[in-house]
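Holo model, fe (ii) ion. Inputs:
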Amino acid sequence: MISEKMAQRLNDQINLEFFSSYTYLSMAAYFKTQGLNGFAHWMLHQADEERAHGMKFFEYLYDQDRSAVLQAIKQPHTTFASALAVFEETLSHEKHVTASIVELMSLALEEKDHATRILLDWFINEQVEEEAAARDIRDRLKLVKDNAMGILLIDRELAART
Ligand SMILES: [Fe+2]
Ligand SMILES: [Fe+2]
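Output:
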């Protein structure tokens, strides 16, 4: 069984993952209003992934004889200045999530909680990939600036995400 403190912190992480999911769903809604369906598709996929992250922690709590206690999900931003602004926010949000996972890892090490440490190993790697993916798209949006053809080209590419 994991400590009560760890269970509390994992519950907070469930909330952060679901807030991430809600944030990306809100970004998908924005892209749909812009007619950028490839960007919307990418964000819907991202929202599903974040929900799955939350569910990994949810199931883990029960594996460790603890319970999930769901908290209110904060309202995400609903308006964005541009596709670039969305990906700047995505990157900074992922950095925030990374910092949260790193704090959980520090607690696991401090408590010699190796089972949770092994679960968190997966999340540490996942965060490297998440930041890299957001940074890659952010950088290409920076290159094309407000060139419509450039944005449409990226949109077509993001439509292919599976
Ligand atoms: Fe996540
Ligand atoms: Fe993420």
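The mean pLDDT is 98. The pocket of fe (ii) ion (ligand 1) is lined by residues 17, 20, 50, 53, 97 (CB under 6 Å).
Archived with the compound record.
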